[in-house]
Amino acid sequence: MGKSVKAKKTTLLQQLINQSFLFRGLEEAWLSQYLDADNLKLETLFSNRPVYTAFLPDEFLDVLYVILNEGVIVVRSTPLDRIIAITYPGGCFGMRSLPFSYGLASRAFPCLVESYKTTHVLKIPLSALEKIYNDNESFRQRYCFLFELQQKFEYHLLNCSSYPPQAVATLLRALIYQERELGSQPDAENIYTFDLSVDVIARACQLNQRTVEQVLKGLQNVGLIASESTGDLIRVLDAEGLKEVYSATRDKVNWWPLR
Length: 259
Fold this sequence. Notes:
Elements: H1 2-19, H2 28-31, E1 42-45, E2 49-54, E3 63-68, E4 72-76, E5 83-87, E6 92-93, E7 111-117, E8 119-125, H3 126-135, H4 137-158, H5 164-181, E9 192-195, H6 198-205, H7 209-221, E10 225-227, E11 233-236, H8 239-246
Antiparallel strand pairs: 1-8, 2-7, 3-6, 3-8, 4-5, 4-7, 9-11, 10-11
């Protein structure tokens, strides 16, 4: 029994190395000096439940959340309840609420961090994170890059037009950039796949759900995306073609009926 449990926990360490942008490629023997395999536990965050509230005065986290396997984590800003961050497997969250590195300077108004879909995470203790950060330059550069990615994601949303086709395309372009930089996508056929519900798109783009559905139908009709009739998966078939919609003005998207 003991050997079986130990093997399972060692596998979690390997998954961390193989699947996480932050830990990718690190040597298992080296990493095990900082992370005790016997204490690594895969935890489940259930859907539509808050994980924590970020940016509360004088309140910080003591762990970094790394997403493995499946899941979607969103950050909702206040008071408009706008989604300003979306994190998929391979990414991590909680950096801006750690009293460490750039987290010390990442202050904002309170934001709800929520597990939008059932999500599997590993919690990395702050003490171990600091030691790895100090001892590994590659890790340190990646950790800093995560803050840059978040700023660029929010920058995309700041440029989110009130014109629905451009607004939805802006969110998709932000996700494409994020996942490409993290090395998570595209697949071998140059297709990006996102677990992205109409509700999340609507909250990120400040549109109503009916309008989002119409935009997605239009994008699908012109061959830029494919979506399931049931479920939330959206496949971006032509990331380059999506750029034209992203930069479009009201008279350039001929498939959108409303001017």
